[in-house]
Design a protein that fits this description.
Length: 412
């Protein structure tokens, strides 16, 4: 009996170690903490796959547990006044420095858009709440965190339109005055899918001829910027990397556009482009826009284009048109649409499928004459900035946060 118990314990320990262990690159600090953290995400993903296979619950409904687990009720504290409001029909969480008496000086403001692949995440998650408070206290700034609607319940362009309405509302001179915000010191920022929305909104705003208030800066944290080529070197190098493997990023893209699983399968094979989107592949040609050091062993091959019956089927409806829409893929605009954009901060990570999206945008922005600060983390992984809460607090998250806020301090 005693021997049997020992064998059972050894077997369980061996299985646990086998499940937790992943071939995480040696360069990544706190590797075992990342493996342990990712084992939770993988377990939840496996459960989500099983529930969807059995018809019990959709994949993203199960994955939404991540959002619920970190949900907080934003409340005021001794330094920060927090209110939950509605701007043009969209929920927002507003963080303001508590006034110390006397006439309030005009402050800078950051409009922050949370990540989560347009399907997960919330302005009311603990990491975003902590980040907002840190920006408020260290910069004496107002932070507007947007609770945009999510896919798959609300496909593109709904999340984008929610964000755009909020930004347009906030940039009205009367609204800025109400919150003591300096009209010349407003930035839009976001991480991952939030970085996508921030870039798209920045592009759209500069097309508005009558816009009286212009953004001063855009800060994009490991942004996702294009859906046409899902086989860039970073997608290939990091296809099994923790937190955001290629399969999950492709699923986020497909769910953003449609619930039709045929698009997911085509995107996984990188055969989802149609005649309209294929004409825009020149804007995401990584062999032209990635520095040589990031090419590594990979050779460029243009994504296949769906033709014939396949191309005339599922790819001729809304999802097909969305592929070529720069509001979904900000990298798809010509250089002329980039020239008048505000100065930019772009954070990228080496071990992230989205690395090349950010680097290609840096190249194109600089070529268009936009002032860009590119901060690349050689040991970074996707989502790093948000791992600031125990027990998943990482040293790299602190460095990312400090450098990000330091840039805002100097440029906003």
């Amino acid at each position: 009996m005693r021997l049997g118990s020992i064998v059972l314990i050894v077997a369980l320990c061996s299985f646990t170690a086998y499940y937790i262990y992943e071939p995480v690159p040696e360069e990544i600090e706190e590797r075992w903490k990342l493996m342990l953290t990712n084992s939770f995400f993988r377990s939840l993903s496996h459960l989500a796959d099983l529930c969807e296979l059995l018809g019990l619950k959709d994949y993203m409904d199960v994955m939404y547990f991540i959002t619920l687990a970190e949900r907080v009720v934003p409340v005021s504290d001794e330094h920060v006044k927090v209110t939950e409001e509605t701007f043009d029909g969209v929920e927002v969480v507003l963080y303001q420095p508590k006034q110390k008496g006397g006439d309030a000086e005009l402050m800078r403001a950051v409009i922050y858009l949370h990540g989560g692949g347009w399907c997960l995440g919330s302005a009311r998650m603990s990491p975003y709440d902590l980040l907002a408070r840190k920006i408020v206290t260290e910069l004496d700034a107002v932070v507007l965190s947007v609770e945009y609607r999510l896919a798959p319940a609300h496909h593109f362009p709904v999340p984008y339109e929610d964000v755009y309405r909020v930004v347009k509302h906030f940039l009205q001179k009367g609204v800025l005055a109400k919150y003591s915000v300096d009209p010349g010191r407003v930035a839009v920022s976001g991480d991952s899918a939030g970085g996508n929305l921030a870039a798209a909104v920045s592009q759209q705003l500069q097309k508005e001829p009558g816009e009286q208030v212009r953004l001063k800066a855009q800060a994009l944290i490991y942004p996702v910027l294009q859906a046409l080529d899902l086989n860039t070197p970073s997608y290939q190098q990091n296809q099994d990397m923790p937190i955001l493997p290629r399969t999950l990023m492709v699923r986020f893209w497909s769910e953003y556009f449609t619930s039709d699983k045929a698009l997911f399968r085509a995107m996984m094979a990188n055969t989802h482009n149609n005649a309209e989107s294929s004409s825009l592949l020149k804007f995401v040609n990584w062999s032209a826009f990635l520095p040589e050091t990031y090419h590594k062993k990979y050779n460029y091959t243009a994504p296949a284009v769906a033709e014939g019956a396949e191309g005339a089927g599922v790819w001729t409806d809304g999802p097909s048109r969305s592929l070529a829409d720069p509001r979904a893929s900000p990298l798809l605009v010509p250089d002329s649409a980039l020239r008048s954009l505000p100065k930019a901060y772009v954070l990228t990570c080496e071990y992230d499928v989205l690395r090349d999206d950010g680097i290609m945008y840096v190249t194109r922005l600089r070529s268009a004459g936009v002032e860009v600060t590119h901060e690349h983390y050689d040991t970074g992984f996707h989502g790093g900035l948000m791992f600031t809460v125990w027990p998943t607090d990482f040293l790299i998250a602190r460095r990312m946060t400090d450098n990000y806020i330091n840039w805002l301090e100097k440029n906003l």
